[in-house]
């Protein structure tokens, strides 16, 4: 049985959960992180020395780092679907997974945390606006691709869409001024049609 540790509102935990659900896997989720603790216990640190979430245990094989977990689950259960069989298509998909870190760095702490997890009186609105602008500029990179193909790695939904798809939900749902990015917006609308995205990713901001 697959076990996944992590609170359901963590953007990185969502990646693992969404992949598992797209693959139709049965799993048990154990709350961990922030108010739930668990990730600071010696038992947890033994399987994940970073003390971060998510971590998985797949029949005794433990793994951490959300994108690696997505790659592992996709390769094990989704060869030819979530994980493209063609080597170049797979590398293309993995490139988008890695690029999501670039967006995450400019978005999670500079925009998401101040707007969702920081009291209004402690927010620096100038810095947030500056960061939103930077994120909008970064999104012109996937915009170029998404104007030409429905998904990041081509015609099919793949693991390429999972990491950035989790960040984009936050980007689209935050009360911020977004530049017009029709390709990204159409892609987000496509993701919203996926039942697993609705269950796992497109949940209330917290
Ligand atoms: N590179 C790691 C980052 C994991 C990470 O930063 N997780 C955050 C949640 S999104 C965390 O564990 N924060 C501490 C906590 O929730 O207590 C990954 O992708 O798995």
Topology:
Layout (H helix, E strand, L loop, with lengths): L1 E4 L5 H12 L4 E4 L11 H6 L7 E4 L2 E4 L1 H12 L9 H30 L8 H14 L1 H7 L14 H13 L8 H11 L2 H7 L5
Parallel strand pairs: 1-2
Antiparallel strand pairs: 1-3, 3-4
Helix pairs in contact: 1-3, 1-7, 1-9, 4-5, 4-7, 6-8, 7-8
Bound molecules: glutathione.
Describe what you observe in this structure.
By secondary structure, the chain is of the alpha+beta class. It contains 9 helices and 4 strands. The protein has helices at 11-22, 42-47, 66-77, 87-116, 125-138, 140-146, 161-173, 182-192, 195-201; strands spanning 2-5, 27-30, 55-58, 61-64. Strands 2-1-3-4 form a 4-stranded mixed beta sheet, covered by helices on one side. The longest helix has 30 residues, at 87-116. The radius of gyration is 17 Å and the shape is globular. The two termini are 29 Å apart. The mean pLDDT is 98. The protein binds glutathione. Residues 10-12, 33-34, 39, 52-54, 65-67 line the site of glutathione (GSH). The site of glutathione has 12 residues, from helix 1 and helix 3.
Task: Kindly list the characteristics that best describe this protein.
about 210 residues; globular; binds glutathione; 4 strands; alpha+beta; 9 helices; four-stranded mixed sheet; about 10% strand
Low-confidence stretches: none
Helix content: 40-55%
| Radius of gyration from CA coordinates | 17 Å
Secondary-structure-based class equals alpha+beta
- Can you count the helices? 9
Strand % is 5-15%
Strand order of the largest sheet: 2-1-3-4
End-to-end separation in angstroms reads 29 Å
Shape: globular
Provide the succession of SSEs: EHEHEEHHHHHHH
Mean pLDDT metric: 98
Largest sheet: 4 strands, mixed
């Amino acid at each position: 049985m697959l076990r996944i540790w992590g609170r359901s509102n963590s953007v990185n935990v969502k990646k693992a959960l969404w992949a598992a659900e797209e693959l139709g896997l049965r799993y048990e989720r154990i709350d961990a992180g922030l108010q739930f603790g668990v990730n600071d216990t010696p038992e947890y640190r033994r399987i994940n020395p970073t003390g971060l979430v998510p971590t998985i245990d797949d029949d005794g094989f433990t793994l951490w780092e959300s994108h690696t977990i997505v790659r592992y689950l996709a390769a094990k259960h989704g060869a030819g679907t979530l994980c493209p069989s063609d080597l170049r298509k797979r590398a293309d998909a993995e490139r988008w997974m890695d690029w999501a870190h670039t967006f995450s760095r400019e978005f999670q702490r500079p925009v998401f945390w101040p707007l969702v997890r920081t009291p209004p009186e402690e927010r620096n609105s100038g810095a947030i606006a500056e960061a939103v602008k930077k994120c909008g500029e970064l999104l012109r990179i996937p915009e170029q691709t998404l104007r030409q193909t429905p998904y990041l790695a081509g015609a099919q939904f793949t693991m390429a869409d999972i990491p950035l798809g989790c960040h984009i939900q936050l980007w689209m749902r935050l009360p911020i001024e977004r530049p017009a990015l029709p390709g990204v917006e159409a892609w987000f609308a496509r993701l919203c049609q996926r039942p697993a995205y609705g269950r796992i990713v497109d949940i209330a901001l917290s």
